[in-house]
Amino acid sequence: xxxxxxxxxxxxxxxxxxxxxxxxxxxxxxxxxxxxxxxxxxxxxxxxxxxxxxxxxxxxxxxxxxxxxxxxxxxxxxxxxxxxxxxxxxxxxxxxxxxxxxxxxxxxxxxxxxxxxxxxxxxxxxxxxxxxxxxxxxxxxxxxxxxxxxxxxxxxxxxxxxxxxxxxxxxxxxxxxxxxxxxxxxxxxxxxxxxxxxxxxxxxxxxxxxxxxxxxxxxxxxxxxxxxxxxxxxxxxxxxxxxxxxxxxxxxxxxxxxxxxxxxxxxxxxxxxxxxxxxxxxxxxxxxxxxxxxxxxxxxxxxxxxxxxxxxxxxxxxxxxxxxxxxxxxxxxxxxxxxxxxxxxxxxxxxxxxxxxxxxxxxxxxxxxxxxxxxxxxxxxxxxxxxxxxxxxxxxxxxxxxxxxxxxxxxxxxxxxxxxxxxxxxxxxxx
Length: 431
Ligand code: CMC
Known about the structure:
3-stranded antiparallel β-sheet
């Protein structure tokens, strides 16, 4: 009869151990009993980059990387993108269920009434140099919000948590738009609470002297869909950072600031900016084959940005939706000339043995930058556009972590390969 256990024979001692297998996993702590001597620390696993380590049990987002499936709370991403909106998606991630009409209205009202930031935020923002990267500003300002809301430290209080979750989701577009306006030397535009989440952000970004900024409905919808697609992606680098920082019971503003920092890197959320720069550097369709050759010959140093994923070994379902949506956006904005280079890159890469063998497909960042650029967002804002909706995913994951009785402060082990203990030699006696 089959048993849900794993038998391990330690060939160093000849001893056999039986450890439980649950949800396709063994507990790393169950290996600690495997020792060669009584004073031995016990066996650990070594997993740089957490390639094969589950850090939590989660009920939020499901990904099947081989099949290219992404579900939020069981709902397929294409259905949410097709029929849903970002705010109900955020509610779904946070609460586990889609809202009723009444719940949605109450939630939208709550978010909308928290969009304003304290006037002192503008003074803090003014301290940044004119060319400060908006991600640096966004991370700093998000951390700074914690000083405005000292009760956010009460992370074990569910009511307090909810208050700050609402605030963070509501205020991040305001901080993001302020960061942009600062870098342009433009006056800040206050939130317009009559507009949708996406439309309000667009008016805070682009409004100039007109009394009421007219948001193009096609672009408003496109941005809202992009927000849905970026809302969560289970235990990625920034979410793991959010959980790790939150595990010390730091307040959610500081934890989110850390997550923004993690997202900033070009291997994660900074990839959309890197894709655009790569396409601009390639310059024309006829140079694509040469660039692909350079990538292959570089031994991993030059990467085809927007390609490859730790989890997806198939076409990223988000990239598929974005690629289709690009046409609707370009109907309004005009076609982005870099699209031809991107399409040619994708065509060549998907036929090339190097990429096929490594299962490298376009990811969410490959086409999103083209849309953002067509919508007149500067390249530096691309990662910020990722951070705005990911806030709901980070917070849903943070809440789940706080409520999970099995979670502890994140504190990995190491394999120490440095010097054995040695005696200190005073400076004057060192050669
Ligand atoms: N271009 C060229 N080669 C690549 C690429 C790429 N974009 N991605 C992976 N490889 C190669 C890599 O060199 C390695 O080859 P080899 O086996 O010969 O050493 C192999 O594929 C496996 O790569 P890896 O770095 O071990 O894979 P990983 O799971 O650690 O990295 C990744 C995943 C996303 C960091 C990586 O694919 C990458 O750097 N992609 C480009 C950056 C990018 O688009 N990031 C956005 C990810 S999606 C948005 C998000 O959620 O952040």
